[in-house]
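Sorry to interrupt, but I need a hand with the structure work. Can you supply me with one protein entry, sequence and fold together? No commentary is needed, just the two lines. Leave the record below and I will have a look.
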Amino acid sequence: MAARDNQETRAVIVHERLRADILSGRLQPGERLKSAVLCERYSTSVGALREAFSKLADEGLVLNRPYQGYTVTPLSLEELRDLTEARAAIESLVTKLSVAKGDVTWEANAIAAHHLLERAIFIDESDPGRPTDEWAAAHTAFHFALMAGCPNQHLLQMAMKLRIEAAIYQMWSVSFRHDPTRDGVVEHRAMLDAALARDESHSAELVIDHLWLTANLLLDPQHQRLS
């Protein structure tokens, strides 16, 4: 039993490190994930690495291809459009229900998550081309906190799963281009304020706008790097 617990613990740690490397761009979309190299990098066993791969595949961050093994999920314009359409429909509905039904604890958690997001370091000076892991985690936590008041667990889990699948696109959109007309701090503050004001419709509209603004950084023909 102890050996199995240790294996599961190692797999969790490897999953977290591998996920961070994918979302930060340290492992590139489409890159083949070589077990021997990664076992050495993370000082782990093949078994723990395979468990991490399996979980990442469930999250849509890696693919298991015949005769190739696991690769980082490649970026695709068509997939990005489909994901964004699905997220705009479902996440806006979940947010609307969350704003309508969330209790005082939900409010407090949303405020706390936003506080952490505002204070997270966005860009590390040593790697200015990528958002920091700290900011990425705080950003995800804030959006999850906004949705957490939704009483429909089926919709909530679906929205969270789609957000995880889209995480690689979100991080690359931030890395590829900084739109001088866009202010992420203002956007997140507006979403929090609308939620706390219990403005269901405006909250849903802000979520939809936020999702498409992010997606369009990659969909813009003048700045396309996707196939």
User: Anything to note?
Assistant: The longest strand covers residues 127-131.
